[in-house]
Structures are given as C-alpha cells and as structure tokens.
Design goal:
The protein is mainly β. The chain has no helices and 22 strands.
Length: 228
C-alpha cells in the first residue's frame, strides 16, 4: 500500500501521471491533503485559489482511493481536468475532492472503475454553498457499481454539471447528480443535463437524485437502462 501525492517528490509536476501499486493505495493528483481521514500526510491545506493540475491517476490492483485534486476544494479553487482509472479491486474515485464548498468548481473529469464493485463521484462526496460540478464522464466497468454524476450530497445553491454515466456490466446504481439534493426549504440545488446508460445487468437509474427537497430543480436528462 502506498500514499502518493502529486506536486511533491517524486511527482514534482503540475500535470502528473501517477501509477499505484498492486495493493490498495490512496492517490492525490495535487498536494492539498489537509483534513483527510485516510492517514495520508497532511500538506497544502484545502485548494482555495487557482486550479489543480490535469492529472492521470491509475490505481492498478487493490482497493484504491483516488482524488483528482484535493481532499477539499473551497474559496475560488478549481479542480483540474483529470483522468482516474481504478482497474482491479473495489475502488473509490473522486474526480476532484472529498468536499467542494464556497465557490469551488469541479473540473471536467473522466473516471473509469474497471473490475470490482466501484464507487465513482464525478466531483466530490459532498457539495455545499455555491459549489458547482464539472461536466464529467463516468464508466463503472465490470461489477456492481455506484456512480454519482456530481456528489452524493448536494446542498442548497449547488449546481450539477452535464454528466455522462455508463454503468457497464453488473447491477449498477446511477445518479445523474446525487443521492440527496438540498436539505433546506428556501434554497434549492440545480441538477445538470445528464446522460445515463445502465448497460448489462439489473440497473437503477435516477436522472437527478433519490431524495430532493426545497425548491430544487432537476435537469433535462436522458436515461437508457440497457439489457437486463
């Protein structure tokens, strides 16, 4: 197992290409790991200004955690346009960060889970304040995968990107935006215009969210269950 961070030795570049190991790894595309709960060295603070690099992260074997940019993006920080590939194992892929808040923005990311039961987030686990998701492409691959076009939880005033989700083989669960969208009655989240394809298997597709409250607004979505 390894903890690998872009922007510090041996990955000094801005746009990094980082391979994992045959075991479960935690990989960050950029040096903003402060606040993480995964045991990775905390450096850089949150990404609150400027943009993360356009990185390639490949998990290889094991159960990996891949973050395109940072643990947290806030302020006016922007995620880069990253490529994340899990390959083997049950992987967790975050196109940008664990959390995006403030006026943070996610990049236009490409995520591929590969084999295993993977969980893919186009932008982050949680979006809050005025955060906005990028226009992401997510492919689950083999296994029973869960895909979130933007984030599992989207708070008030957040905006989802226009995402393309493909479950692949297996019994997959696809959310065009998030599982939970806005918890407040006055300020709703806005879903993106998403394209969802279940692929083979018994899939569940939700164009926007499983739970929506307040004055949240869904996007104009296109859903195709596929076979099964």
């Amino acid at each position: 197992m390894a903890n690998l961070i872009g922007g510090i030795p041996p990955y000094r570049g801005i746009n990094n290409f980082i391979d994992g190991t045959s075991d479960g790894d935690v990989i960050f595309g950029d040096p903003y790991t402060t606040g993480n709960v995964l045991g990775v060295r905390e450096i850089g603070g949150p990404l609150v200004a400027g943009s993360g690099g356009n990185d390639w992260l490949i998990g290889l074997g094991g159960d990996d955690w891949l973050f395109g940019d940072a643990w947290e993006i806030g302020g006016t920080g922007r995620g880069g346009d990253d490529r994340l590939i899990g390959l083997g194992g049950d992987d967790w892929l975050f196109g940008d960060a664990w959390e995006i808040s403030g006026e943070g923005r996610g990049g236009n990311d490409r995520l591929a889970g590969g084999k295993g039961n993977d969980t893919l987030y186009g932008d982050a686990n949680t979006m809050s304040d005025l955060a906005q998701g990028g226009d992401d492409q997510l492919v689950g691959g083999e296994g029973n995968d869960t895909l979130y076009g933007d984030a599992e939880v989207m708070g008030p005033n957040t905006v989802g990107g226009d995402d393309h989700l493909v479950g692949g083989s297996g019994d997959d669960l696809l959310f065009g935006d998030g599982a939970q969208v806005s918890q407040f009655p006055l300020f709703g989240a806005t879903g993106g215009n998403d394209h969802l394809e279940g692929g083979a298997g018994n899939d569940t597709l939700l164009g926007d969210a499983d739970t929506s409250s307040g004055i949240s607004v869904g996007g104009d979505d296109w859903l195709d269950g596929g076979s099964g």
